[in-house]
Design goal:
Blueprint (H helix, E strand, L loop, with lengths): L1 H25 L14 E4 L2 E4 L4 E7 L2 E6 L5 H10 L7 E3 L2 E5 L5 H39 L4 H34 L2
Antiparallel strand pairs: 1-2, 3-4, 4-6, 5-6
Helix pairs in contact: 1-3, 1-4, 3-4
Length: about 180
C-alpha cells in the first residue's frame, strides 16, 4: 500500500514534468521550432483541427518555419489560423507553401518570455506540492486506520519529501535551460 502511494506520486510528478516540457517548448527562443505552432487550430471543413495533423511543418533555417498543407484547398485557412493564433507571426503564402518568418526577439520580449517560463515552472511546482499533499493525506489515513505502523508511515513520508524535492530540482533545471535558450542571442 505504501509503495502504491509512492508510485502515484511519481506518476503525478512525471505528468507535471511532461506538461511543463510541452509548455516550455511552445515558448519561442531565438530559433524556429515546429512546436511553436502546436496550439494552432485550423477550421478544416467545419472542424477545428491541429495544424500538425493536416500539414507538414519544417524548419529550413533557424528563423523560418515552412508549413505545407496536404490539402491545397486550405492554404488560406491555415495562413489565417497562424496569423490569428496571437503568436506575433506573419505568414506568407508562396504557391502551395506557407513561409512563417520569425522576427528577431528584442531584449524586452526575451525578458517577458523568461517570466512566462518561470510562471510555468511555478505552476508545475504547485501541481507537485498538491500531489505531495495528497500522498501525505493518504499516509495519514493509513496511520489512523492502523493499516501501517507509525515507523513505516514516517519512512514513507520521508520518501515522499525526497521525491518531491527531486521533482522540484528537475523543474528548476528545465526552466534554467529554457531561460538560457531564450536569453541566448
Amino acid at each position: 500500500m505504501l509503495d502504491d502511494i509512492h508510485k502515484e506520486l511519481v506518476a503525478a510528478i512525471a505528468k507535471a514534468h511532461d506538461v511543463l516540457k510541452r509548455d516550455l517548448a511552445k515558448l519561442r527562443a531565438g530559433r524556429a521550432n515546429p512546436s511553436l505552432l502546436d496550439g494552432v487550430r485550423v477550421d478544416y471543413y467545419g472542424t477545428p483541427t491541429a495544424l500538425a495533423q493536416m500539414a507538414h511543418i519544417h524548419v529550413p533555417e533557424p528563423r523560418l518555419l515552412t508549413v505545407k498543407p496536404w490539402d491545397k484547398g486550405v492554404i488560406r485557412a491555415v495562413e489565417k489560423a497562424i496569423r490569428e493564433a496571437d503568436l506575433g507571426l506573419n505568414p506568407q503564402t508562396d504557391g502551395d507553401l506557407i513561409r512563417v518568418p520569425l522576427p528577431p526577439l528584442t531584449e524586452e520580449r526575451r525578458r517577458e518570455f523568461v517570466k512566462i517560463a518561470k510562471k510555468y515552472g511555478e505552476e508545475c511546482k504547485v501541481t507537485i506540492r498538491k500531489a505531495r499533499h495528497d500522498a501525505n493525506d493518504m499516509l495519514n489515513q493509513l496511520d489512523s486506520d492502523g493499516d501501517a505502523s507509525k515507523d513505516e508511515v514516517d519512512r514513507a513520508k520521508k520518501r515522499v519529501e525526497d521525491t518531491t524535492a527531486d521533482g522540484s530540482k528537475q523543474i528548476e533545471s528545465f526552466v534554467a535551460g529554457k531561460e538560457k535558450d531564450i536569453l541566448e542571442v
